[in-house]
Design brief:
50% of the residues lie in helices and 7% in strands. By secondary structure, it is of the alpha+beta class. Among the domains are: 2-104, no CATH class; 138-218, no CATH class. 27% of the residues are buried.
């Protein structure tokens, strides 16, 4: 069942998913107090004036841009709900192929490194990358970079995802910079420092770090740029904490940017094979 209603507010229901109105700018293109339904059930909105007539129109009259944005929001919430929506009607199946839908669809239900290749899933994820889906770009980029496969294009994908607002990509990019020589290391240090200004930010960084470590443990890391000697960000002889325990690492902000970077990069290095200390 798919149900759309314009009566002061827009509601779309696809399966168990409900999304309130966001498309105020589209109302001028539609009749006032319009109800659009697909299926046998039609919900009538409350009418302030009993003499007002409810106007009904066919679903096909909705602007494509409006339907595309709705499906993009559905896709961002759940790829499963998007696939269900495509089965509802030909209009959804058609509009769901728009680039904006693939650009925003969630990939949470798909493995980053699948054990078995599924041709349909591979085609779906490839189209997500072509449509500049930040998560798809990040996954392909970070996996290929640490594998040492097409390193330049892999780094470009991670950078593109980071510029699109993908937080984990920005974190991975900072880590990559730390391994990239003195000039890039300074840039990476500044990026990591800016991500850990508050306790809330440090908790998010821990999540990104854990996710990156998980990826590194799933792949065969072969990039020589990250398999050399552990990068040293602080050359001063500060009193250091022993070990790289996650509780100690994220409890307080280090007063030295270099030390904070060394502490942050430690768990990443521990997830890499045969790295010299």
């Amino acid at each position: 069942m798919v149900y759309l209603s314009f009566a002061g507010d827009l509601v779309i229901v696809i399966g168990s998913l409900s999304i309130p109105t966001w498309a105020i700018q589209h109302r001028s293109a539609l009749p006032r107090n319009i109800t659009v339904s697909y299926g046998s059930k039609r919900r009538q909105p409350h009418m302030a004036n009993a003499q007002n007539l409810q106007t009904t129109t066919s679903f096909s009259s909705l602007p494509r841009e409006l339907v595309s944005e709705v499906l993009a929001r559905v896709a961002a919430s759940s790829s499963t709900d998007l696939f269900r929506a495509k089965l509802c009607c030909k209009r959804f199946a058609d509009v769901a192929e728009d680039n904006r839908v693939y650009q925003r669809v969630s990939l949470a239900k798909f493995d980053i490194v699948p054990w078995r290749k599924n041709p349909k899933v591979s085609m779906f994820v490839k189209k997500c990358r072509r449509c500049k889906n930040p998560e798809a770009l990040y996954r392909k980029g970070v996996v290929n970079y640490f594998r040492g496969k097409n390193v330049e294009s892999a780094l470009q994908r991670v950078e593109e995802a980071a510029k699109a607002g993908h937080d984990e990509a920005a974190y991975a990019l900072a880590v990559i910079f730390v391994f990239g020589g003195e000039e890039l290391k300074q840039k990476g240090m500044a990026m990591l420092s800016g991500m850990k200004k508050s306790a809330a930010q440090r908790r998010r960084v821990k999540e990104w770090r854990d996710n990156l470590r998980r990826i590194l443990k799933m792949i065969w890391v072969q990039n020589s740029l990250v398999l050399g000697k552990r990068p040293i960000c602080c050359g001063s002889q500060h009193k250091r904490k022993r070990g790289w325990g996650p509780d100690e690492l994220d409890a307080v902000e280090s007063t030295c940017e270099g030390c904070a970077c060394d502490e942050e990069i430690g768990p990443i290095c521990d997830a890499l094979p045969q790295i010299a200390v």
